[in-house]
Structures are given as C-alpha cells and as structure tokens.
Here is the input.
Amino acid sequence: MATDLTEKIIQPGNSAARPVRIHPLRRGVQVLLAVLSVVAPFTNLFRIDIRTDRLWVLGQDFSAHNALMLFYVFSLFALVVISISLVYGRMWWCGFTCPQTIVSDFADSARQRLRKLTHAHWSRTRSVLSTSLWLSLMAVAAVATSATCVSYFYAPATVWQTVVAPTTDIGISTAVGILALFCFADLVAIRRHFCKTACPYGFMLGVLGDQHTMTVRYLWERGEDCISCKKCVRVCPVGIDIREGPNQFECIGCGECIDACNDILPRIKSNPKPGLIELRFGLDPMRRKERMTVFQRLGLWDGKRGLVAVVTLTLIVGFMAERFGSYGVLATISPLGTIAGDSRSIHETYQLILTNQTSSSVRMSLSVAGIPGVGIYQPADVVEVDAKSEKQLTLGISAPRAALVADRRYPVSIVARTTSGPAAMSKAATFFYVPGF
Ligand code: SF4
Ligand code: SF4
Here is the structure.
C-alpha cells in the first residue's frame, strides 16, 4: 500500500540542489521529432519516391536504384544505432526517440488528460464519454501517422490531399487507409506490449550491453532510505518495479521513475535525501561522477567504445564529404559477377554509376588501370551525363590471359574524366577476379 506522504512533505528549497527533470526533456525531444517526421518528406530530408524512382537524402537527389547509396545510408544508420546503444543503453532510443514510444506516450497521456478533463471517475456516463473522445482522437492520430509514413514513399502533398479527398488518388488513399487501421490498433491496444514482448532492439541490447553501458539503476546500497511509496512503480509506463533489479527486459529507460523518486524523497521533512534511482554507466556503486575523466563522462569507458566512436565518426565524415562535398563528377562501381573468357582474354562486367554534380551537361571518357594490357570493351564510346543527374551503365573490362594467374583477384581502378564541360575526374576501385582455368 502506498505511504501517505502528506505529513512529511516539505517545501522545495529546503532540500539539496534539485536534479534535472527528465520528463520535460523527453517530451520536448518527442514533440520535436514528431514535427520533424512530418516536415522531413516535404523538405526532402529523407524519402524514397516509388513512382518517380528517386531517393532523397539531406536534400540530395539520387536514383532509387542506387543500391550502393541505399546500402551506405542503411549501414551507417545501423552502425550509429549500435554504437550509441553500446554506450548509452536503451534510454536514448526506447525511452526518448523510438516512434513506438512516442505514439504510446501520446496515447497514454491523452487518455489520462481526457479522464481528468471529463471527471471520468464521477459516473459511468462520464467514463463512456471520456473513452469515446479518446477513441476519436486516436482515430485522427492514426490517419495522421499513416499519412506521415506513406509520404516517405509518395509525393507528400498528394498523400495529405488524399486524407481530405480520398478520390484524388485511389492507390495512395488505399495505402493510407490500410496503414491507418494498423496504427489505430497500435494506439488503442498494442502500445507497450510490443516493447515488452516483441521488440528486436530490446533483444539486441541484451547482447550489446556490458558492465559500462548506461543503465537506470535503483541504489540498492541505500535501500534503507526507500519509504516504499511506490511512486516509481505507478509512473512506470511498462508497469515494472525498478527496485527488483536493473536491466529488466521490459525497462525502456524512460527515466520517469528517476523523476518520481526525486520528487518524493528530497521532500521528506525528517530526512531529506536525493532520489534512489539514477542513470549511470554500469552498476558499480563506487563510481562517483566527480572521479570520472572527461572521456568517461562522455561514456567512453574502454578501448572498444573509443574504437567504435572513431570508426563511426570517420565513416560519417567520409560519407558526407564524398557525397555532399564539392566534387564535379563521381564514379561508383560494383561487380555484376558475369565472367566469360576465350583462349586469349577474360571478360568481366560491372555496374558503373556516373554522377554529374555540375550544372552543365558533360561527356566523360573512361579508362582502366591495374593489370598490364587491361582495357574497356563496353561502352565503346564516351558517355554523356546531363547536368545534376546520374547515369547507370554496364561496364565491360577485359584482360589478357597471359598477364593473369588463375584463381586470383586483381585490384583495378576506373577513371572517369570529362572531355567536355567543366574539367573533372573521379576514380573508382574494384577487383578483377580470375577464376580457376
Ligand atoms: S524508490 Fe523512491 S519512488 Fe520508489 S518506492 Fe522507494 S522512495 Fe518511493
Ligand atoms: S523502470 Fe519503468 S519508469 Fe523506470 S526507466 Fe524503466 S520503464 Fe521507465
């Protein structure tokens, strides 16, 4: 049973310095992300347009078939998620930024506010009114969430137009309608059940986390200070008791229990003390913030974390510099795996993507180096690429058998050089594979 604290409350200010509250920070981040998720497809921050076959990343326009670019984008995203999770645990994603958390928080908060507003506990009629209002609000939220998701794959203006006039585009309005049904089910019934039972990220963290990962922890070494008010349990969105141990699978690291205990314990008149739940790197009670180095305060507790941080940052900077830097033309190449040969030479094909970032049309000549006598047999002529666009083509390379050893891979580089328009050059590296003869 919860302890009645009425007698024990003292005014804030009599206690030690008040800790930073996590709840307002969380809400601020969530509102910002919700707005950003609606704005992002409109401003081409990120979206894939299925009908026009285009991919937009940070306002840059690519072909949606550019598998290499998609691979870069999703690999980088996965690497960033994994490295941040290794250091900062579940809080930054599950607790703050995951879309499932944001919609669940919205649904829970709307339900509580509506119950309060309509005084739902006064009578059954008021309770039914409160539930009806909540279900209606969730239906609107489901359509808005669905339209936001679909606008990442179709023209955003058309998608939102179909919300008010479904006949504008039957294909899009069908997609919005079907997805809205799933969103509605999620908002009214699924919510945290997904986080508690099916979320793959939660399972992944069980593997990634170690003794230095940031964790929400009950200070069991100060257990005698707990007044068993259970406020930390009542505010927990997944309904667990953090006092039963850290790293419980259901804990999403939202930090609400930290605020709850900090709201109660420092106000106890007889014995004001800081809250009993905190966020810290690992579970060692002897770790004191004031004894940490700057790197440890940032979460870089060991060489593994330092290495992951350096690799991730290097890849991000390299990716941004290569894709959005001031290059004129760019060549990217990947093997297609087609290898043929005759008595004198071996032929191999590749997919070559030539990107022209300049504002004028260019003609490009191609050359290859790396093996004595190597040459390009396809395409036969120079390649023309329009301004601010890219061209995909099949590149054929052949090399004389006399220069090759069976069952070996030879590094080769392709050079694309402009022969008209602004002078520019780009080099792409790949391998020429020689099978066993
Ligand atoms: S940990 Fe804090 S909030 Fe939870 S029951 Fe104990 S005193 Fe109350
Ligand atoms: S125990 Fe509950 S309230 Fe505390 S961080 Fe975990 S999910 Fe949030």
Q: What stands out?
A: The domain at 328-434 is CATH 2.60.40.10 (Immunoglobulin-like). The longest strand covers residues 329-341. The chain has two domains: 1-289, 328-434. The pocket of iron/sulfur cluster (ligand 2) is lined by residues 216, 235-238, 240, 242, 251-257 (CB under 6 Å).
